[in-house]
Write a structure and sequence with these properties.
Blueprint: H1 2-29, H2 31-36, H3 42-50, H4 54-71
Helix pairs in contact: 3-4
Length: about 80
C-alpha cells in the first residue's frame, strides 16, 4: 500500500511540475491567454494542446474549438 501511495504522490508532483512549466511557457507567449486559462479544468488545457498561440486560436475559430471540445466530451460547468 505504501508503494502505491508513494507512486500516486510522485505522479501528482510530476503533473504539477508539468503544469507550472506549461504556465511559464504560455506566459512568455501570451500573458493574456495565460491569465484566462483555468489550470484546474481539462477543456482549456486540451484546447492549448491543439492550438498553442493566440493567432492559432483565432484561426481555429469558435466552431472548430467547440467541435474539438464536444468530441472530447468536455462540458461547461453550469
Amino acid at each position: 500500500m505504501q508503494l502505491l501511495v508513494t507512486h500516486r504522490l510522485q505522479l501528482s508532483r510530476d503533473r504539477q511540475v508539468a503544469s507550472k512549466r506549461l504556465q511559464g511557457l504560455l506566459t512568455a507567449i501570451s500573458p493574456a491567454v495565460e491569465r484566462a486559462v483555468d489550470w484546474r479544468r481539462k477543456g482549456p488545457l486540451l484546447m492549448l494542446g491543439y492550438w498553442q498561440t493566440p493567432q492559432a486560436i483565432r484561426n481555429a475559430g469558435a466552431e472548430r474549438i467547440e467541435a474539438v471540445l464536444r468530441h472530447a466530451r468536455i462540458r461547461t460547468r453550469g
